[in-house]
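User: I'm putting together a teaching handout on how multi-component assemblies are represented. Below are the sequence lines for each component of a complex, exactly as they appear in our records. Could you produce the 3D structure of the whole assembly as structure tokens, so the students can see both representations side by side? Please keep the chain order the same as the input.
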Amino acid sequence: MNNKVIMWSVLFLILLGLYIMGEGMIFIEGARVKFAAILIVSITIYYYIDRARSGEEIYLRTIPGLKALEEAVGRATEMGKSVLFVPGISDLDQVETITGLNILGHVAEHTAKYEASLNVPVSKSIVMEAGRDICREAYLKAGRPDLYSDDMVHYLTDDQFAYAAGVNGIMIREKPAACFYLGKFYAESLILAETGNSIGAIQIAGTGSMAQIPFFVTACDYTLIGEEFFTASAYLSKKPELLGSIKGQDIVKLLVMATMVLTVVLNGLFQAGWISFDIIKLFIEY
Amino acid sequence: MLLKRQIPLMIVIGIGLLTLFGNFINNEAIRGFVDNDATQWFDIIASFAIFLGALNMLKLQLIKIIKKQKNWQYSILAVAGFAFAIFAGFFYRGANFITISGVQEGKIAIVSEIIAEEVDDTNPYDIETKIMSSQDEYEIDKLFMTEGNAKLFMKKLTPHAEGVSLKAKPWGAHVQTKGSLFYWMFINMITPLSATMFALLAFFVASASYRAFRIRNFEATLLLVAGIILMLGRVPIGNLIPWWAVSIMIMFGIGAIAAPFIKERTILLGIVGGGIFIFIVSGTLMGWNQTPPALLSIPIIQDWIFAFPAMAGSRALMIGIALGIVATSFRIIIGLDKSVLGG
Amino acid sequence: MEAIKKIFILLGSLDRRIIFLIVGLSVLIPLLKPDWVNLPIRPTPESQIVFDEINKLKEGDKILLSFEYGPSTKPEIHPMAIAILKHLYAKNIQVYGFALWPDGNFMSTEAFSEVSDDYDKIYGIDYVNLGYKPGQEAVIKGIASDIRTLYTVDLQGTPINDIPMMKDVINIEDFDFVFSLSAGFPGTKEWVQYACDPKNIPLSTGCTSIQVTDIMPYVENNQIRGILAGMPGAAEYESLVERELRKMGKPGKPGEASGMMAAQSIAHVVIVLFIIFGNISYYITRKKIRKG
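Assistant: Of course. Below is the structure of the complete assembly, with chains in the same order as your input.
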């Protein structure tokens, strides 16, 4: 068995043991399973990051939406129109907004390279500041700091539908050739996507808001569903460590599925009276 | 470089690890920080950051007006709306109210009638009871946006009560008190505008469904059938759809799903038509007109779709999204993903 | 036959604006003439559970009513708020209003002023409105541990220690029930995660139709007791409350949501018909292309 696997397993057992020993004194009681779960997830992801750093090739399937990012910016350049990027309506405390801004960095690099104009209307002031930093760095990285302007990333309003109205107005007046909706959205998602559809723009969307995914799938050309959106930044960067973390995330999903199947089977056997071990109790009481 | 990259990174890693593992530490101060202070710090920062956004918005709109850029007229509306909201929130309370005291015994009825007329209350007796039961002073249940209007009304009451005073709601409370200028603006401007934008969704859903719900392949057909059942089942009209109509829909649905596999159209038509005929005849003979089976009730099928396939799909997506959030947060906390810091 | 095919092909290539016009009329006409369409409202099991849970509460029990919606979702959720308040007031249950959204203040003020006078309820004794505090989940955590660390005054600026019904209320454990009127974040899920599930306080919710799939897993797990799903849920609850008020011999006005269900039903039927016509047109067009 791999030495690293043994090492990480031993580390897991030591940390869990320390937690159990310190329960009631340093650590709270009744959270062993949660702590163990966090350790397993963290160690699994870090193990694969480590493997990727050591040179292992990580295979990732093609995600059409991410492949189309550069094409969409190229299309906007050819048509002489702008690129619209909507990073959602939530603040920087939401992981989706951070993910959206990470992708903005990649889009900004492309717009700098192709000399297309970029318009990023935002709904929160902190997101505006973070977005400006990211775009500035992206344009610098692409060697075109002269093309960058602070007004590219501008604040509209905090109110959900006032923001949707503002973005719709930008779409109808400026008719961008490419629209990106990447972040956290609520009910305004369909309003934005349908308006983008009506102006003939190529649309790429991604969100972690489950209820909005069907609307984006219906109205957009490409949609990043579920974890595809969260892996986008790592996928686009092509850095081995980040790709390794995607593999780690997939392995964690595999472990979750295995746990679910095991729980169903063991609970079924317990309910039938064939075994006396109640796995549900393990999750609730510990 | 240290200030822009390393120090923010150390703050991110430190606070991230503290917030994550602070949930497990048996210490009041740490738990207090994790549960309350951490989110409140963010809210305080976000509140101050609003100035940045507002000033940016004003700057862009004013430049548009001054330079008379394309569609500069809309910018006037934007600036005017902004100014009006600031005025109503911070400079003009518009939340004046009147209190009365020392109403003479024989004059309570007259005063109640005057107040009832002003507040559009058809029952002055209620007001009379409240005046009599109030110990110090009685606050009239109406806000006046201007002092002038309030003083005009006070003139009507002054002959009948010893103490008639004009007061104003405290700053802050004036924003959500019914009758104030800000409240008027919220109810008469913001509410209809927000409701209008939300109502657009109805039209966009119609055009999106019309475009997207096509029988292109098996999955699209399944989406179409489930969508129609849910749309009809969620509303009362679903209860009125009889069992035989549902049978016809089911047979057409089966036909649509089987269509890519059965090349001979006459055979397909025969299966669908025959199925409908058998359904209706056997259903009539089995007395389904009086007691239709649950399977042929759209609302019940809809409940089942919601409770099982839709639930399973949404749970799976939820788990996937949650894992995505965990992995992204992990990368940020350990400092691997520095792109949010601009790198 | 050719003429029918031509009609369907025409229907399939209809301008969006005509579709919008027809959908608009299908909503407007039933709203203007509600007597033309009278549809029976059948309460779903989830709405019935909400009604039964609130009906189980006794006189003098305390309920925390949280307003997490704004003007855009007011047509869906405000009728629920009105129906819930009528039910609570009829049963003489003490109502404590909170808001996790700034807009929730306006919604709560409107709801309380619309219903309280009809039931002769006195502010401070039968109901109180503590209003909105910024902080999202931190507010819920604060309510779960100690309300007075967050709230020192109510919405009108009255110190809460001067409000009679706040006397014995320290934190969420002093409430017998929590009801969340939610249109998004923060909302029902946060109440489950940070307050009601850890402290074992029964929770029910009324939310927009779009949120139902997000919240149903919690309902299935019994972490949330029933759910009022969008406007149909509001109409169902209104019909249940009306029936109960009639049983109690108390006056009742018909609710708004029930009147709007006809409009929603007709609009859904129109959309379904357009989908069917669109598919028939798509099928005919594809057949023509294959032949040609």
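A couple of points students might notice: The first helix of chain C runs from residue 2 to 12. The radius of gyration of chain C is 23 Å.
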